[in-house]
Hints:
alpha+beta, 6-stranded mixed beta sheet, two-stranded antiparallel ribbon, globular
Amino acid sequence: MDNIKELTPEELRRMQLLQLDMLAELDRVCRKNKIQYTILGGTLLGAVRHKGFIPWDDDIDVVMLREEYEKFKKVANQLDPQICWFQDHSTEPEYRWGFAKLRRTGTEYVRPGKEHMKCRTGVFMDIFPLDDVPRWIPAQIYQDFKCYCLRKILWAEAGKESAKGIKKKWFQLLSKIPVDFVYARLRRDVKKSRNDTQNGVRILLMPALGCIYTKNPLSVRYATPKKWFLEVSEYEFEGKSFWGVKDYDSCLKYIYGDYMTLPPEEKRIPHTPAIKIRF
C-alpha cells in the first residue's frame, strides 16, 4: 500500500504518552472499584527491562480475568471522556474483535487493512479478558482450533478487502457468516470462567500466549497459569505505578524465553504502521 505511514520517532513517542494517559485512567477506575488488572506482554516487559515503554513499542496491553473484565465493563462510564472511552462489540456492533480497547478521545488511528471498517477509530490500548480453558489437553487443542475459526470469521470483514488470491475468496465466504454466530459461541466458554477455579486461562480469540514467541511444552501451551493474574505487584512504568504479574520472571520466560536479551536492531520496529493518524 502506497499510503502506509511509518511513524517518526517523535510521533511514536507522542502516541506512547497518549496511551500512558489512558493506562493511568484505567488504573484510577480499577483502584476506585477494586478491580484487578495486570499489564502484560510488551508492557510488562517494558516495565521490567526499561521502567517504561520498550523504545520501539507502539501499544499497551492489559489483561483481566473474566470476572474482573465484566466488572470493569459495568463501570467503564466512569472513565474521563476527555481522556478516553471504552469500545467493544457490546458498545459498538461494528467492532468485530473478542476483546476491548480504550480509545483516546479526539484522535484517529487506522491500521492497514482496516480502513474500510465501520467502527470508530483512535489511538488505543488493548484490554484482554482471560477465560478458563479445559484441563484435558485434547480439549484445549479442540478449543484452540475453534477459537482460530471464530477469529477468522471476525477478521473476514477486513480480509475480504485486504487479502489476495484464494484467501480473498475464502474471507469473502466467511464474511457472510453473521457476527452474532461468533459471539454466541464465545459466550458458551465465557460463562464457565471463574476466578476461583483451578483451570489455566487464555485470551480466547487471540493466539494462545504459550504458542506465540517460544515453544512451550504441550501441557502448558494453551493454558497460562491463572495464579499469575491473581498475584500482582506494583511496577514503575514511565514514572507511574501500575499493577503487573508478581512472578514476572516465570511469566515473561513463558511468553518470550530469554526476555532480557534485546532483539537485533532490524526487529526493533513498531507492530503496525498506520494508514491514517491524527493526534
